[in-house]
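Progress against Task 2.4 (sequence-to-structure conversion) is shown through the following example record, which the project officer requested during the mid-term review.
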Amino acid sequence: MAQSGRYSIFIRPLSYLIDLAILILFSSQFDFDLEMSLLFDVYITMCWIILSTYLGFYEVYRFTKLIKIISLTLSQALLFALIVFSFFGIFYELVREPGRVFLYLSKSFAIIFLFKISLHLFLKKYRKDLGGNFRRTVILGNSTKSLQLKSFFDDNPEYGYNCIKEFKIRSNTNIENIFKFILQNEIDEIYCSMAELNNDQINAIINFADNNLKVLKFLPDNKDVFTRKLNFEYYGYLPIISLRKIPTDSTVNQLLKRSLDIVLSLGVIIFILSWLTPLIAILIKLESKGAVFFKQKRNGLDYKEFYCYKFRSMKPNPEADLHQANKNDQRITKIGKFMRKTSIDELPQFFNVLKGDMSVVGPRPHMVSHTHNFAENIDKFMVRHFVKPGITGLAQVSGYRGEIETDQDIINRVKFDIFYLENWSLLLDIKIVFQTVINAVKGEKKAY
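Structure tokens generated for the chain above:
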């Protein structure tokens, strides 16, 4: 389910582009020739992205204070100034008067700062006066801190939190009724006062949030939830704990992951599928009648359905969307057996990656009928849908690919998938890609 107010996925990339456009536009005052102008623009672009990632320059949220934005801008300006002066130190023949460099930096950061502040204030005004860009919330608990949080939401409409209801919690409170209310009212975020919840209630709420794609945050005390990987934030002066922080929620990480996806998918489509597809098509057609490609509905990001593409490896049959392939499956053709053993049948999914339905690396998507069953019976299965599904994944290179023979197979897959989405890095994706290629060349035991 898409969340209300999840605007940052659009705002942050736009902010990056506008800021870089300002820096590049004002660099024309240095009167470089074309070659040096391109070199300078590439240099400041790369350095700006790296520096802003390191400092968290774009990590500005609805609850971020104005003084924090000013502090971030000053830090970014000082370090970026050193970077620009370093360029002229490296290319001594291009040296410019310090006054011109300071003028460039002053003009650029004045406009960048003005844009950043204006955008932040505009969004606050938009939330307060028009009621847009909001998130529907509930608070579980009636402690002093939960009352303070309710007051914070009510007194600060510019932050865009619409508190629908506050629940009093007792040891005999029927949590299931609260869950029904959350689902019926399409609540986006759940805030819990941990001081009023026992461990069983906390675990029940965590499982509910995981299985229904709800953001869960805590007003902290000394409960054992601190043993989990948590994210600590402040709303005003109130400490708030998020159950998990997903690295790919960061705009920079989204950009890095999407860039890797586009590069790899274009590479496979242009250099492999362009000549391999006609050969595979001939072999498929020679052995059995039917389409060259097979498409099947799968569940992706936020549980949305999409068509997943593969080379057809089975004889056309009415059970293709119901039953997973198993060992010695009579539906699999001879060429299909080879394709599945080497994972060649998965290659058309690079078109899904290029379209944006999938990523190269991520939790493997299942047939819709299987997904519904797993969602109902396997704890935390829905957590995997916080990120895009992948052609390959950590679970697959760790020995959990192919047919699901027991509940333990899917439980282990889910554990690896959750570990992946909580600990994502570009290097981890690259490692999984290389391991997948190695496994495909060697052939895998459960690839049938």
